[in-house]
Design brief:
285 residues, alpha/beta, nine-stranded mixed sheet, three-stranded antiparallel sheet, 9 helices, 12 strands, globular, disordered N terminus, signal, Altered inheritance of mitochondria protein 6, PLC-like_Pdiesterase_TIM-brl, AIM6_PI-PLC-like_dom, TAT_signal
Length: 285
């Protein structure tokens, strides 16, 4: 039932945010495809890995996350202000490599696969000014990013979703054309904003659920989780939780299994190899 709901959600949002970058039929054929991407895999704190972006792509992840700080006119990547290095910019670590990869793969993040890669940009400084700089940078890559223009979504190889400081939403909503989308919270679920603005609903697992994968999943919490994914998918939105247990072992596997069964779209991890191995054994959708 969860898979049926998820497929309906992808159809609702259409060829744009969660779905299909149209490729020529010859390039979409199975014989010309690379390894199957793991669309449910989200690389939390991706920039902390030895090879930002590339390690996640090597593990076939469908989503990567970069924390950014606006410093002057640069978006520097790091988890804390003390971590920042002027050479580690969003453009050098993510935008330029993604553009080169998409060119090499004839318009796709993964060769022969039509869904966009998600780039989650988590703003750690004041959101409005940081978003406006992000917008300027995304516009330098006119064919790379999924675009919203005058009420319609035009799919691209990469979909940028803005998370972090909530002030980013104001300038985004005011734009009639943009190359990024907004990461909502559970408080946004069922609100008036459409999936063309908020395609993703993310929230803190520990602030909404008590279960950590040990013992049975309480029925009330399972019902609550499925209510969240059902409501989001009915509006063409996807769901992600952060702060889920991420220590390898049966508890993590049990929680990931329940998340997939409930239709959660992205599993959050810092353990790239661990989630890759899990999803290869537990494919979903």
């Amino acid at each position: 039932m969860a898979l049926t709901t998820r497929r309906r959600a992808l159809t609702t949002l259409g060829a744009a945010l969660a779905g299909t970058l149209a490729l020529p039929a010859s390039r979409a054929s199975a014989g010309d495809r690379g390894p199957r991407p793991l669309w449910h895999a989200h690389a939390h704190n991706d920039y902390a890995h030895p090879r930002p972006l590339y390690d996640a792509l090597d593990h076939r992840f469908g989503s990567v996350e970069a924390d950014v700080f606006l410093v002057g006119d640069q978006l520097l990547v790091g988890h804390e202000a003390s971590d920042l290095d002027p050479s580690r910019t969003l453009e050098s670590l993510y935008l330029e490599p993604l553009a080169a990869r998409v060119r090499a793969h004839h318009g796709a993040a993964y060769r022969g696969w039509r869904r966009p890669l998600q780039l989650l940009v988590d703003i750690k400084t004041e959101g409005s000014s940081a978003y406006l700089e992000l917008d300027r940078q995304l516009r330098r890559y006119p064919h790379l990013f999924t675009r919203y223009a005058h009420g319609r979504v035009h799919p691209g190889p990469v979909t940028a979703v803005v998370s972090g400081d909530r002030a980013a939403r104001t300038p985004m909503e005011a734009q009639t054309e943009r190359r990024a989308f907004y990461d909502g919270r559970l408080s946004d679920l069922g609100g008036s904003a459409p999936a063309s603005l908020i395609p993703l609903i993310s929230d803190n697992w520990t602030q909404n659920f008590t279960w950590s994968g040990v013992g049975a999943f309480p029925d009330a919490e399972r019902h609550k989780l499925r209510g969240i994914t059902g409501a989001a998918h009915a509006r063409g939105q996807q769901v992600r939780f952060w702060a889920t247990p991420d220590t390898a072992g049966p508890a993590r596997d049990a929680l990931w299994t329940e998340l997939l069964d409930a239709g959660v779209d992205y599993l959050n991890t810092d353990d790239l190899a661990g989630l890759e191995a899990f999803l290869d054994v537990h494919p979903a959708g």
